[in-house]
Amino acid sequence: MEKLIIATRASDLALWQAYHIKHRIEKSFPDIKVELNKIVSNGDKVLDKPLALIGGKGHFTKELEDEMLAGNAHMAVHSLKDVPTYIPDGLELVAITQRQDQSDVFLSHKYKSLKKLPHGAVVGTTSLRRRMQLLRKRPDLIVKDLRGNVNTRLRKLKEGQYDAIILAYIGLHRLDLLKDIPFVKKLKLKNMIPPMGQAALGIEIVSNNEKVREIALSLNDEDTYLCTQLERDFVATIGAGCSAPVACNATIDKDDNIINLEAMIGFADGTNIMHKTTTALVNYCEHIGVQLARDFIDDGALEILKDAEKVAFKDEMPQRL
What we know:
CATH superfamily of the largest domain: Periplasmic binding protein-like II
Largest sheet: 5 strands, mixed
Shape: globular
CATH topology of the largest domain: D-Maltodextrin-Binding Protein, domain 2
Order of helices and strands: EHEHHEEEEHEHEHEEHHEEEHH
CATH class of the largest domain: Alpha Beta
Strand content: 15-25%
Number of strands: 13
Protein backbone atom coordinates (compact mmCIF):
# COMPACT_ATOMS: atom_id res chain seq x y z
CA MET A 1 0.00 0.00 0.00
CA GLU A 2 1.53 3.30 -1.10
CA LYS A 3 -1.23 5.83 -0.36
CA LEU A 4 -3.79 6.14 2.42
CA ILE A 5 -6.72 8.56 2.10
CA ILE A 6 -8.30 9.95 5.26
CA ALA A 7 -11.79 11.44 5.13
CA THR A 8 -12.25 14.42 7.43
CA ARG A 9 -14.59 17.30 8.04
CA ALA A 10 -13.23 20.62 6.81
CA SER A 11 -13.64 22.55 10.06
CA ASP A 12 -10.51 23.91 11.74
CA LEU A 13 -10.68 21.45 14.64
CA ALA A 14 -11.43 18.45 12.43
CA LEU A 15 -8.47 19.34 10.21
CA TRP A 16 -6.19 19.68 13.24
CA GLN A 17 -7.25 16.19 14.28
CA ALA A 18 -6.83 14.73 10.79
CA TYR A 19 -3.37 16.25 10.33
CA HIS A 20 -2.39 14.95 13.77
CA ILE A 21 -3.34 11.42 12.71
CA LYS A 22 -1.69 11.92 9.32
CA HIS A 23 1.62 12.80 10.97
CA ARG A 24 1.41 9.85 13.36
CA ILE A 25 0.80 7.42 10.52
CA GLU A 26 3.58 8.84 8.37
CA LYS A 27 5.99 8.54 11.29
CA SER A 28 5.07 4.90 11.95
CA PHE A 29 4.69 3.93 8.28
CA PRO A 30 7.21 6.10 6.37
CA ASP A 31 6.59 4.28 3.08
CA ILE A 32 2.93 5.32 3.00
CA LYS A 33 1.79 8.69 1.70
CA VAL A 34 -1.25 10.04 3.54
CA GLU A 35 -3.74 12.38 1.85
CA LEU A 36 -6.83 14.12 3.26
CA ASN A 37 -10.26 14.07 1.64
CA LYS A 38 -11.82 17.23 3.10
CA ILE A 39 -15.61 17.28 3.32
CA VAL A 40 -18.03 19.96 4.48
CA SER A 41 -20.57 17.92 6.43
CA ASN A 42 -24.25 18.76 6.64
CA GLY A 43 -23.79 19.42 10.35
CA ASP A 44 -21.35 22.19 9.43
CA LYS A 45 -23.67 23.67 6.80
CA VAL A 46 -26.92 24.03 8.75
CA LEU A 47 -26.11 26.52 11.49
CA ASP A 48 -29.49 28.10 12.21
CA LYS A 49 -31.05 25.11 14.01
CA PRO A 50 -30.08 22.96 17.01
CA LEU A 51 -28.29 19.75 15.99
CA ALA A 52 -31.06 17.57 17.37
CA LEU A 53 -33.55 19.14 14.94
CA ILE A 54 -31.48 18.27 11.86
CA GLY A 55 -30.73 14.69 12.82
CA GLY A 56 -28.09 15.02 15.51
CA LYS A 57 -24.36 14.50 15.57
CA GLY A 58 -24.58 11.74 12.96
CA HIS A 59 -24.63 14.60 10.45
CA PHE A 60 -20.96 15.12 11.28
CA THR A 61 -20.07 11.55 10.27
CA LYS A 62 -22.44 10.42 7.52
CA GLU A 63 -20.73 12.13 4.59
CA LEU A 64 -17.35 10.77 5.68
CA GLU A 65 -18.80 7.27 5.88
CA ASP A 66 -20.35 7.69 2.43
CA GLU A 67 -16.92 8.60 1.02
CA MET A 68 -15.41 5.43 2.48
CA LEU A 69 -18.24 3.24 1.21
CA ALA A 70 -17.86 4.81 -2.25
CA GLY A 71 -14.16 3.92 -2.30
CA ASN A 72 -12.94 7.51 -2.00
CA ALA A 73 -11.26 7.10 1.40
CA HIS A 74 -9.75 4.28 3.45
CA MET A 75 -10.20 5.82 6.87
CA ALA A 76 -12.07 8.58 8.68
CA VAL A 77 -11.00 10.55 11.73
CA HIS A 78 -13.88 11.60 13.99
CA SER A 79 -14.34 13.30 17.31
CA LEU A 80 -15.55 10.16 19.05
CA LYS A 81 -18.35 12.01 20.82
CA ASP A 82 -19.91 12.64 17.38
CA VAL A 83 -19.89 8.98 16.30
CA PRO A 84 -23.26 7.21 16.65
CA THR A 85 -23.24 3.79 18.30
CA TYR A 86 -24.47 2.27 15.02
CA ILE A 87 -21.73 1.77 12.42
CA PRO A 88 -22.85 1.00 8.81
CA ASP A 89 -22.12 -2.39 7.24
CA GLY A 90 -18.77 -2.38 5.50
CA LEU A 91 -17.20 -0.02 8.03
CA GLU A 92 -15.70 -0.53 11.49
CA LEU A 93 -14.69 1.69 14.38
CA VAL A 94 -11.45 -0.12 15.17
CA ALA A 95 -9.28 2.31 17.14
CA ILE A 96 -9.63 5.07 19.72
CA THR A 97 -6.77 7.45 20.42
CA GLN A 98 -5.63 8.25 23.94
CA ARG A 99 -8.16 10.47 25.64
CA GLN A 100 -7.05 13.99 26.50
CA ASP A 101 -8.57 16.52 28.91
CA GLN A 102 -12.33 15.88 29.04
CA SER A 103 -13.28 19.08 30.82
CA ASP A 104 -15.84 21.56 29.63
CA VAL A 105 -14.73 25.15 30.07
CA PHE A 106 -16.51 28.34 31.13
CA LEU A 107 -15.68 31.37 28.96
CA SER A 108 -16.69 34.98 29.54
CA HIS A 109 -15.64 38.55 28.85
CA LYS A 110 -17.57 39.80 31.88
CA TYR A 111 -17.64 37.28 34.72
CA LYS A 112 -14.92 35.23 36.40
CA SER A 113 -16.82 31.98 36.86
CA LEU A 114 -20.15 30.20 36.69
CA LYS A 115 -20.74 31.07 40.33
CA LYS A 116 -20.22 34.77 39.60
CA LEU A 117 -22.91 34.92 36.90
CA PRO A 118 -25.81 37.12 38.00
CA HIS A 119 -29.43 36.03 38.07
CA GLY A 120 -30.81 35.85 34.54
CA ALA A 121 -27.41 35.75 32.83
CA VAL A 122 -27.43 34.35 29.28
CA VAL A 123 -25.26 31.28 28.71
CA GLY A 124 -24.66 29.76 25.29
CA THR A 125 -24.21 26.06 24.54
CA THR A 126 -25.16 23.64 21.78
CA SER A 127 -25.40 20.75 24.20
CA LEU A 128 -28.53 19.46 25.90
CA ARG A 129 -26.22 17.63 28.30
CA ARG A 130 -24.63 20.90 29.40
CA ARG A 131 -27.98 22.65 29.50
CA MET A 132 -29.35 19.95 31.82
CA GLN A 133 -26.43 20.16 34.22
CA LEU A 134 -26.21 23.96 34.19
CA LEU A 135 -29.89 24.46 34.93
CA ARG A 136 -29.86 21.76 37.58
CA LYS A 137 -27.40 23.88 39.56
CA ARG A 138 -28.45 27.34 38.34
CA PRO A 139 -32.14 27.33 37.31
CA ASP A 140 -32.03 31.13 37.28
CA LEU A 141 -29.83 31.22 34.16
CA ILE A 142 -31.10 31.70 30.61
CA VAL A 143 -29.49 29.05 28.40
CA LYS A 144 -29.58 29.72 24.66
CA ASP A 145 -28.46 27.60 21.72
CA LEU A 146 -25.04 28.39 20.25
CA ARG A 147 -24.17 27.17 16.74
CA GLY A 148 -21.34 27.83 14.32
CA ASN A 149 -17.70 26.84 14.24
CA VAL A 150 -15.49 27.59 17.22
CA ASN A 151 -14.38 31.00 15.95
CA THR A 152 -17.98 32.02 15.28
CA ARG A 153 -19.00 31.03 18.81
CA LEU A 154 -16.14 33.00 20.34
CA ARG A 155 -17.04 36.02 18.20
CA LYS A 156 -20.64 35.90 19.41
CA LEU A 157 -19.37 35.84 22.99
CA LYS A 158 -17.08 38.81 22.38
CA GLU A 159 -19.93 40.76 20.75
CA GLY A 160 -21.97 40.37 23.92
CA GLN A 161 -24.64 38.06 22.56
CA TYR A 162 -23.97 35.85 25.60
CA ASP A 163 -22.71 36.61 29.10
CA ALA A 164 -20.81 33.32 29.01
CA ILE A 165 -20.53 30.20 26.90
CA ILE A 166 -19.56 26.61 27.69
CA LEU A 167 -17.39 24.65 25.26
CA ALA A 168 -15.15 21.58 25.34
CA TYR A 169 -11.71 22.57 26.60
CA ILE A 170 -9.66 20.29 24.37
CA GLY A 171 -10.72 21.80 21.04
CA LEU A 172 -9.93 25.33 22.18
CA HIS A 173 -6.60 24.17 23.54
CA ARG A 174 -5.65 22.42 20.31
CA LEU A 175 -6.46 25.51 18.26
CA ASP A 176 -4.80 27.88 20.77
CA LEU A 177 -7.94 29.97 21.15
CA LEU A 178 -8.00 30.54 24.91
CA LYS A 179 -5.39 33.26 25.26
CA ASP A 180 -7.59 36.20 24.22
CA ILE A 181 -10.55 35.42 26.50
CA PRO A 182 -10.45 37.32 29.81
CA PHE A 183 -12.12 34.68 31.97
CA VAL A 184 -11.47 30.98 31.38
CA LYS A 185 -12.31 28.37 33.98
CA LYS A 186 -12.39 24.60 33.56
CA LEU A 187 -15.43 22.90 35.08
CA LYS A 188 -14.73 19.90 37.29
CA LEU A 189 -15.89 16.59 35.84
CA LYS A 190 -18.03 15.96 38.92
CA ASN A 191 -19.89 19.22 38.20
CA MET A 192 -20.18 18.77 34.44
CA ILE A 193 -20.14 15.09 33.47
CA PRO A 194 -18.82 14.70 29.90
CA PRO A 195 -20.60 13.00 27.01
CA MET A 196 -19.76 9.58 25.63
CA GLY A 197 -16.34 9.69 23.96
CA GLN A 198 -15.33 13.23 24.89
CA ALA A 199 -11.68 14.20 24.10
CA ALA A 200 -10.85 11.04 22.13
CA LEU A 201 -10.61 10.47 18.39
CA GLY A 202 -12.38 7.57 16.70
CA ILE A 203 -10.66 5.88 13.76
CA GLU A 204 -13.20 4.34 11.39
CA ILE A 205 -12.06 2.18 8.47
CA VAL A 206 -13.34 0.13 5.56
CA SER A 207 -13.69 -3.46 6.72
CA ASN A 208 -11.99 -5.34 3.90
CA ASN A 209 -8.48 -3.86 3.98
CA GLU A 210 -6.13 -5.54 6.45
CA LYS A 211 -3.31 -3.05 5.90
CA VAL A 212 -5.63 -0.18 6.81
CA ARG A 213 -6.69 -2.13 9.89
CA GLU A 214 -3.02 -2.57 10.88
CA ILE A 215 -2.40 1.15 10.47
CA ALA A 216 -5.50 2.08 12.47
CA LEU A 217 -4.65 -0.30 15.32
CA SER A 218 -1.27 1.38 15.68
CA LEU A 219 -3.20 4.47 16.84
CA ASN A 220 -5.28 2.68 19.46
CA ASP A 221 -5.02 3.32 23.21
CA GLU A 222 -6.27 0.28 25.15
CA ASP A 223 -7.44 2.11 28.27
CA THR A 224 -9.33 4.73 26.28
CA TYR A 225 -10.83 2.06 24.03
CA LEU A 226 -12.11 0.20 27.09
CA CYS A 227 -13.57 3.28 28.79
CA THR A 228 -15.26 4.62 25.68
CA GLN A 229 -16.65 1.20 24.75
CA LEU A 230 -18.41 1.04 28.12
CA GLU A 231 -19.78 4.54 27.53
CA ARG A 232 -21.00 3.56 24.06
CA ASP A 233 -22.54 0.36 25.47
CA PHE A 234 -24.49 2.45 27.97
CA VAL A 235 -25.81 4.86 25.35
CA ALA A 236 -26.66 2.08 22.88
CA THR A 237 -28.50 0.01 25.49
CA ILE A 238 -30.52 2.87 26.91
CA GLY A 239 -31.33 3.99 23.38
CA ALA A 240 -30.50 7.62 24.02
CA GLY A 241 -30.82 9.80 20.95
CA CYS A 242 -29.48 13.28 20.35
CA SER A 243 -32.75 14.89 21.46
CA ALA A 244 -32.36 13.88 25.10
CA PRO A 245 -29.68 15.01 27.55
CA VAL A 246 -27.24 12.21 28.42
CA ALA A 247 -23.91 12.38 30.25
CA CYS A 248 -21.71 9.31 30.54
CA ASN A 249 -18.09 8.92 31.63
CA ALA A 250 -15.84 5.98 32.47
CA THR A 251 -12.49 6.36 34.22
CA ILE A 252 -9.83 3.91 35.39
CA ASP A 253 -8.30 4.00 38.85
CA LYS A 254 -4.90 2.46 38.14
CA ASP A 255 -3.95 2.13 41.82
CA ASP A 256 -6.89 -0.13 42.63
CA ASN A 257 -7.36 -1.58 39.11
CA ILE A 258 -10.98 -0.41 39.18
CA ILE A 259 -13.08 1.19 36.48
CA ASN A 260 -15.75 3.73 37.43
CA LEU A 261 -18.74 4.47 35.23
CA GLU A 262 -21.02 7.45 35.87
CA ALA A 263 -24.11 8.49 33.93
CA MET A 264 -26.88 11.07 34.11
CA ILE A 265 -30.07 11.66 32.15
CA GLY A 266 -32.90 14.13 32.61
CA PHE A 267 -34.73 17.03 31.05
CA ALA A 268 -32.89 19.88 29.38
CA ASP A 269 -34.38 22.27 31.94
CA GLY A 270 -32.48 20.52 34.74
CA THR A 271 -35.42 18.60 36.14
CA ASN A 272 -36.28 14.88 36.28
CA ILE A 273 -32.63 13.97 36.83
CA MET A 274 -31.49 10.35 37.16
CA HIS A 275 -27.85 9.93 38.20
CA LYS A 276 -26.08 6.64 38.90
CA THR A 277 -22.56 5.25 39.23
CA THR A 278 -21.09 1.78 39.20
CA THR A 279 -17.64 0.24 39.61
CA ALA A 280 -15.92 -3.02 38.67
CA LEU A 281 -12.48 -4.51 38.52
CA VAL A 282 -10.92 -3.74 35.13
CA ASN A 283 -10.64 -7.45 34.33
CA TYR A 284 -14.36 -7.95 34.94
CA CYS A 285 -15.91 -4.76 33.61
CA GLU A 286 -17.01 -5.88 30.15
CA HIS A 287 -20.74 -5.69 30.80
CA ILE A 288 -21.07 -2.77 33.22
CA GLY A 289 -22.13 -0.28 30.54
CA VAL A 290 -25.05 -2.51 29.57
CA GLN A 291 -25.88 -3.28 33.20
CA LEU A 292 -25.87 0.37 34.26
CA ALA A 293 -28.23 1.18 31.40
CA ARG A 294 -30.55 -1.62 32.50
CA ASP A 295 -30.52 -0.23 36.03
CA PHE A 296 -31.58 3.13 34.60
CA ILE A 297 -34.31 1.46 32.54
CA ASP A 298 -35.61 -0.45 35.56
CA ASP A 299 -36.02 2.88 37.36
CA GLY A 300 -37.98 4.51 34.54
CA ALA A 301 -35.30 6.01 32.31
CA LEU A 302 -37.10 5.24 29.05
CA GLU A 303 -40.07 7.35 30.08
CA ILE A 304 -37.78 10.20 31.12
CA LEU A 305 -35.92 10.08 27.80
CA LYS A 306 -39.15 9.94 25.81
CA ASP A 307 -40.56 12.96 27.59
CA ALA A 308 -37.21 14.77 27.47
CA GLU A 309 -37.18 14.53 23.67
CA LYS A 310 -40.65 16.09 23.51
CA VAL A 311 -39.65 19.16 25.52
CA ALA A 312 -35.98 19.56 24.57
CA PHE A 313 -36.52 22.18 21.87
CA LYS A 314 -40.13 23.20 22.38
CA ASP A 315 -39.22 26.85 21.75
CA GLU A 316 -37.55 26.05 18.42
CA MET A 317 -39.98 23.42 17.09
CA PRO A 318 -43.00 24.53 15.04
CA GLN A 319 -46.30 24.37 16.90
CA ARG A 320 -49.15 22.27 15.56
CA LEU A 321 -52.25 24.19 14.56
